Every structure is written in C-alpha cells, then in structure tokens.
Amino acid sequence: MMDSQRPFLYLTLIFLGFLLWTSWQQDRAPKPLPAPSTQTSTEASSVPSQTATNTNNASQAVPAIPNSGITSGAGQIVRVKTDVLDLQISTKGGDIVAADLLTYPISLEEKDKPVRILDLNGRNYVAQSGLQHQAVNGQAADNLAPNHLADFTVEKTEYVLAADQAELIVPLVWQGPNGVVVTKRYRLKKGSFNVTLEEEVKNNSPQAWVGSEYRQLKHGPSHVNNNILTSGVQAFVGGAYYADDKYKKLNFKDMKEPMTATATGGWVSMLEHYFISAWVPPQDQTNTYYSMELQQAGTPNYILGVRSPVKEIAPGATDTFTSQLWIGPKLQDDLEQIAKGLDLTVDYGIFAFVSKPIFWAMQAIHSFVGNWGWTIVLLTLFIKLLFFWPSAASYKSMAKMKAVSPKMKEINERFSGDPQAKQKAMMELYKKEKINPLGGCLPILIQIPVFMGLYWVLLESVELRQAPWILWYKDLSIMDPYFVLPLLMGASMFLQQKLNPPQMDPMQQKIFQFLPIIFTFMFLWFPAGLVLYWVVNNVLSIAQQWFINKKIVGHA
User: Domain containing 315 — which CATH number?
Assistant: First the structure.
C-alpha cells in the first residue's frame, strides 16, 4: 500500500511546491521605486542611429541625425479624448506622453480614476516616433526630417470624439528647410484602443527626399506601478518583440546590451500586468528592430523600437509612412487581428497549451451566462464531465482499495519484517480484487495541468480583471476578502480524504492529514476565481466518489 500511494504523494508534494514557489515569488517581488517627477536632461542620444543598428541591410544605412537644430523645451500638450482613450500628445516630437484607459478603473474603490499606461511624469513611459533623413548628393542631412525631439505646430490643443463621430483625426505639422513639410497625423476610432499614425512627407524641395521612419517605446526604471498591479501578483514588466515568427521578451536589464534584428512584419511592445503598448509597422515590410539603454539625469531609461525601410520621395511628390499603435488592455481577440503573434503578450508561459483552450471555453460559456463566476462553475462541471469515465475508473479503484483495507492491514502486520513477502502478497491481493494501485493518481494528474492553466488565465486575462460573481465577490482576480472559499476548499479536501483508502505508512498518514491545512493556508491569497474552481471541483469529486463507493463497490 505504501508503494502504491507514493506516486500520489509525490505529485501532491510537487504541486504544493509550485504553490510555495508562487507565493515566494510574490513575497520576494521588488518593491516600487519612487517615480521621478521630472526629466531634466536632453534626449538627443535616444534618436536611433541608422549606422549603428541597421547592420543587416547596408543599402538602407542612414547616418544619425546630428543634435544641431533640435529645439529644446517641453512642448505644448494636446489633449485627445475618445470614448475609451484619453491621450496627451506633446508638440515636441509629437510624442504620446500620457494615455488613460477610460473604461478600465485602477480599482473598484476608485472607479472614477482610469488606468494610466503611458506616463511621462511618472515612469517616463512614452510612445515616440520620428523620421530620419539620408544625405543625397553630399547635401547635409541636418534638419531635413523631424525626429521625436523636433517642434510641431497644431491648430488646437483639444480634440474630443463627438457621440456621432466614428473617427477623430489629430494633425501636427513640421516645416523644414527647402519646402519639406511633414504632417504627423493620429487617427483614433470609436471604441478602439488601436491608434493609426501617418507621417506624411510633402517634398517641395528641388532634391529627392530619402529617409525612413522609426517608432519606439521608452520606459523609465524597472519598477511596479501599483495602480496597474491590483491582483497582488508580480507580473512581468519589460519589453517584448516579434520577429521571424518568434516571440521574445526582454528584461530591462537585457536592454543594456543593444539588440538589432531585421524581419518582415513583426512588432515591439512594452508589457505590464493586463496592459500593453505596442508599435506595429506594416506587416509586408522588412523592418529593423532595436533596443538601447539611455541614461537620463543619471537614471537608466530603456528603449525598444522598430525602423522602416528607406523611402525616396521625388521633388514635388508626397508619400506617407503608416503604422499602428495599440495602447490598451491585452484583449486577445483584438490583438490577434492586428498582427501575428501580438496575442502572445497575454503570457500564459509553458501552460499556454492548456490556458488557451480554457480561455476559449470560458469565453463561449460567458457569452451565454454573462457572469465570470458562474462561468468558472460551469467550466468546472464541463471539465468534470469531460473526464468523467477516467475519473470514475480511478475512484472505483480507490473505492476497492478502501473496501479491502482490512486485508491490506492484515498483510502489512503479518509481513512487517519481510518487505519482499509483503509486496508479493499485496500484488496477489490487487490481482485477485482487480485493483490498479496507481489508479488513484489519475484525478490529481488531471487536475494539476487544468489548475495551472486556469491559474494563468485568471492572472493574465484582462477580461477577468475586476470581474464580479455574487455577494462580496466583486473581483475574482484577487483574494477572497473573507477567506470563505479557501476554508470551504480545505473542508472539502478533508472530506475527500476520508473517502479515500487510508495510508498504511504512519509518516504518509501524517503528511496527508496536514495537507488540507497547508493547502488552505496557501489558498488564502490566491485569486478567488481559482479557489472557486477548486471548491467546485472538490464537491463534484466528492459526489462522484461517494456514489461509486455507495453504489458500484457496494454491489460488487
């Protein structure tokens, strides 16, 4: 009996180790650093160098823009508001220096205060874009294209999407020497977190204009924004990019070493819990991706960007660089439609193969019931039905072992000094009673990957953020404030143990007796939705096992 229970014990301890490791990760998470209130140094070095990073395509090499001609000053703020976004755009470079998500409050206690993603004065987190000009026929490249430090002019400083409008257009204009005019145009649509950027170059000069566009995200020192991390879990904060059909994450410390890659399509992004910003260039272009670290007033800042191929615009002609900027929540369906691989920013890790089907099933159920709590209950019932027969066979094996436990105890006492004889007698008993001693491991084998998959769905899926259920359960992505579900989980786990055959080994008996207490303690801080799944699963398992013990084995 002892050997037959060991796999079950090992699996349980491995699972418990996972819970302990997760809790330790949360406790060891770095504390928030004080955010810098102002940025005083120049950002000239943040303009990407074509010669330094475009090593994979020499024909597109363009020298870096010199600092001469760059206008200093913070620039004027242009306020842009739609039904879902509230943006602040600076006339200095046309950077988006602040972005509030109007439909996502930072917490249930502050429903009127929206989540802020881009935040110049907080985390020095901004979305930048600009053009770089290539010298032609020996003509100097100075001031022939506006980078993200150039000054733009605007017609007005406030744009609001009217109720009857479908699209809002915000133009910023830069006048260069020799008649070159660049219009940076932001297009925002109702109900969308996807912003289209157009940089129109009108070449009124007598020479051809040759250059490229870059788009980059700059983030200040690596620290957690408590307004965004509301679930009590330390999520990944850093960069990510997609090139050559590969999704790669970059810790801020990794950006100390410049990165460059060339690929068709792709995108760059900055990730925070539930929310991202992402520059997405035209997917049919061959783009160059880069990263760098920028020291600003003695503080490191991190840049992740993408540069377009070079365009040549003839005298008197006009051409436009186009890209998309997502500023918002990690809505998987929307991200998947924008660009290949962008939905991978919903980072389920190694359990993606389980989490993705679980989330798909939850979406389907939620479309009917409209409540994520009842969705979890019905999902648990569905999973239980899906594995009903394998679980039934396992419970039947465990019930049979419980029925013959007196005989097993007798064998254990009779051959206490002869392990080989005891093992032989046990195997003969299993064979006679048609018992699979490893059958009891199947339920936990099924539960562990499903539990972990659901764990990451609850942590990473913004759809479940601040999702209510009933009574005081206003947010299933955070812990139960009154610990009712964890206590019910512990009680159900204890009751389930009573339906299982007892362990012969005294040490194993003690370990199993303490498991409900240990699990209850661990689950006190887990998302309520996750504990809800475990409680419902335990209740259904108890009902199934009781029925088998009472009806099937009783009539055997």
Answer: 2.70.98.90
